[in-house]
Amino acid sequence: MSTPYDRPARPWDLFNKNLGRVETEIADERFSICKTCDFLLPTGNCSKCGCFMSSKVKLPNASCPENKWGQVVLSYKDKEIK
To answer: 0.90 exceeded by the pTM?
Structure first.
């Protein structure tokens, strides 16, 4: 069975309650890397991928398009469909 972790992050993953989030320290570390990057626009978007980085850094299956930070492995809780 595949999970959302088996593919790159998508914007709608932010609304998936079964998809966990990285720890605050990891999100902060990722975003601090983004803040020093030439591709971060004043709007907070990345000019490479177009994402709002303050949100993207929280997703475990997200990664930087410039390979400055990568995915974090978390477990996925899939709800049983009845």
So the answer is: no
